[in-house]
Amino acid sequence: MKPYRVLLYYIYSPIENPDQYREEHHLLCLQLNLLGRVIVAPEGLNGTVSGLTADCEAYMAALHADPRFAGIEFKVDEADDHTFQKLHVRIKSEIVHSDLPVDPLRQTGQYLEPDEFKKLKNDPDVVLVDMRSNYEHAVGKFKGAITFDMENLRELPEHIHEIEHLKDKKVITYCTGGIKCEKASAYLLAQGFENVYQLHGGIIKYGMEAGGEDFDGQCYVFDNRVTVPVNHINPETISTCYRCGSQTNRMINCASPVCNNHVTLCDDCGHEHQGTCSDDCKQDPALRPYDGTGYYGKQTQSYSPMQGFVSQRGQKNTTPLTLTKAD
C-alpha cells in the first residue's frame, strides 16, 4: 500500500460566510500538511488534495464532522508522494465555473451509481454525453459517447444544438468526479430534455467501484499525474502522439511556457523534442526542463502555503496549531 492518498470531492451546501470559512479551511490544510486546490464558494466546497494517509483520514473526518459537509463522498486514490506542489484555498463565486442559470440543490439529473451505470450504458435508448473539456476527452472517453469541442463548461449552451435531436433518449452525462454534471444535467433539464441522468462520482468512482469497463484511454486529472488509468477490464488506447502519430496515453503540458498546450506525446517524442509540441516551441528561450512527466506547476511569485498567516510568536515554521490570521 502506498503511503500517500489523493482525495477528490465536492458538495453543494450553502456556506454563509465563505471568507471566514476559507481561513478556517486553509488552517486545517496547513495543520495536516496537505497540498492541493480547494475552492470555497457560497454554494459549497470543491477540492482535490494530497497528503499522508493519516493526515487525509483526519481531513475527511474533520469535514464529515461539520453538518454542512457530512454528505461529502470522497474519491480516494493511492500515491507514492504528494501529487501537488502547492496549497491553494481560494474564494470563488461557483465551485465549478459555469455561468449556467441553474441550482443543483433545486433540480439536477438523476444519479446513477457505478453499477447502475454499467448496466444501463449499452441500452440502445441511452446516449452518453461527455461534459468535460476537449483536451480531457481527447485522451480518454466512454465508447460511443458524444463529446463537445469546448474548453470549459461555460460553453455548453453553444453546443446544445448538437444533441437537440436526442431529447427522446435517456441522456447520461459524465465527467471526472461528478461535479460538472450537477449543473450540466440541470441545464439539460431546463432546455427540455426529460430523461436526464448523471454518473454519480464520475469516471473516477466508476473505475474504482465498477472496474471502468468501456472507458477507452485514460482519465485526465488536475494534478501532477496528468492522467490515470480507470479501465481494468477492457482498456484501449484512443489517443495518438501529437508529433509522430503513434498510439499513446501520455498527456503533457508543452514545455514552452508561452504555449503550455495539453497534448498527447509518446515517451520517445517527449525526450527527442524536449517535451514540446512543435519545433517553434522547441526554440522558446524560456523552455522549461523536461523531466519526462510533462507536468509543470504554475510559477507563483513569493508563494508560501502559510501566506496570510503568522505564528502567535511571530515566527515562521512553528507548529501549525499556533497559527493565527495575520492583520
TrEMBL record:
Residues 122-215 form the Rhodanese domain. Keywords: Oxidoreductase, tRNA processing. It comes from the Bacteria. Gene3D superfamilies: 3.30.70.100, Rhodanese-like domain. SUPFAM superfamilies: Rhodanese/Cell cycle control phosphatase (SSF52821). Its EC number is 1.14.-.-. InterPro entries: Rhodanese-like_dom (IPR001763), Rhodanese-like_dom_sf (IPR036873), Rhodanese_C (IPR022111), TrhO (IPR020936), TRHO_N (IPR040503). It catalyses: uridine(34) in tRNA + AH2 + O2 = 5-hydroxyuridine(34) in tRNA + A + H2O. PROSITE patterns: RHODANESE_3. PANTHER family: RHODANESE-LIKE DOMAIN-CONTAINING PROTEIN 7-RELATED (PTHR43268:SF3), THIOSULFATE SULFURTRANSFERASE/RHODANESE-LIKE DOMAIN-CONTAINING PROTEIN 2 (PTHR43268). Catalyzes oxygen-dependent 5-hydroxyuridine (ho5U) modification at position 34 in tRNAs. Belongs to the TrhO family. This is tRNA uridine(34) hydroxylase. The lineage of its organism: Bacteria, Pseudomonadati, Bacteroidota, Cytophagia, Cytophagales. The gene is trhO.
